[in-house]
Amino acid sequence: MSDLRDAAMSSKAWPFEEARRVLKRYASKPPEKGFVLFETGYGPSGLPHIGTFGEVLRTTMVRRAFEIISDIPTRLYCFSDDMDGLRKVPDNVPNPEMLAEHLQRPLTRVPDPFGTHDSFGHHNNAMLRRFLDTFGFEYDFYSATDFYASGGFDQTLLLAAERYDELMAVMLKSLREERQQTYSIFLPISPQSGRVLYVPIKHVDASAGTVTFDDEDGTETTLPVTGGNVKLQWKPDFGARWAALGVDFEPYGKEHAPNTPIYSKICEILGGRAPEVFTYELFLDDVGRKISKSMGNGLSIDEWLTYAATESLSYFMYAKPKTAKRMHFDVIPKAVDEYHQQLRAYATQDLGQRLANPVFHIHGADVPESNLVVPFAMLLNLASVSAAEDKDQLWGFIKRYAPETSAETHPDLDAAAGFAVRYYNDFVQPAKVYRAPDARERAALEDLRDRLTAWDGGLDGDALQTMVFAVGKDHGFEPLRDWFKALYEVLLGASQGPRFGGFIALYGIEETVALIEDGLAGRLG
User: Lowest CB count within 10 Å: 104, 304, 320, 447, which one?
Assistant: First the structure.
């Protein structure tokens, strides 16, 4: 354990770098609350998207890294801001008309358009928890509605009333003059309509712990700030939550970065210590737009898991968290193959290299072996040329290529074969465009066909690749990638593809000869 801890203290893997920042907070004494608190926040105004999962996963990776370098207990809170008012009707829910009349009501007081839970907020919270439980996260779930109503926020809210002017001074500096005229850190919830009100506060009574305002019909109303009668505006709420819970680490997207000084100052005024924050880049859809819960653009967790195993998604989330990521279907095959490459590398690495390997942060010290003896991208091409409708068709080729494999002994490979068939039919096949070869390409393809017909070197992918290279050179392809591009476009209907020697070894010599003849005759596509 000491060797592991020593190596972790110098590792440049980003979870260890973040964990060391958290540890510095308690260099002199441990936390009074008895544990280090990692937190993620979630706004359940729409269905949870894959970015929410990524936030919890990354926080979990930092938490695990912290547990390697410190003996201080840890906890992870997933906090749902489900007391927020519904600002607009999401585009991706059934029965949207039933939500329109409930705008600005807290999400936990808006009917569930799916008809399965007490409210829209409760439905979305359940969705989030189901997603998180699928991946085995260890966390405590907190609902803002429950936290406000149960008294968990009472002490902080009463302190906010006492220090109202100081908090307002922080907020007013960040607002335009017009907004300053009506702004208050407190948002009362109308006793009449149930809506979250963005109205001027006429009076804050710190001793009584109340706020006075005009309700929607003009009636002057006084409410206690406790008991769920009032909530905080979102920026003060951020800092107040840090103070109330004693948060030590929280990640969020770069859109929050300009507000970090505000959140931190609010937290300090309310008697807390601002946490270490980790700002990550945004998740984008296929055209570069930010993923939105209400729009439903980009990938969902369920969609990813339709085409690949959970570990590939975890790998995708680990890599380069400070770089914007496109979350679309075409990133899945690359993530699958890179994940298995890292698994294979892990077995030969020393301790320092292992701590920098993404699979350590996905699995901890119990990293499995990869039995994906055929890359996922190769399986996709195999599904293409064999017109496979189920994974059993692929297994006929796989068994000839790797006789020692089976679905029982290589479950990762068996699952990947099924995913590949599904992915190919849904995404690859509709986009295929075959073309006829030009004169030079035709001559080279005929030469390749003839050499394969005379081949007696067995299913040796490296030897076959050398032969394919030789054909390209002999026919004057410069650069050689033009030769491989021609192979892919004429034979596979795509502009890029697999290592072709390996593909021949997997698909078979006779089958590849027949494929070339079909390509030359224009029978593909």
Answer: 320
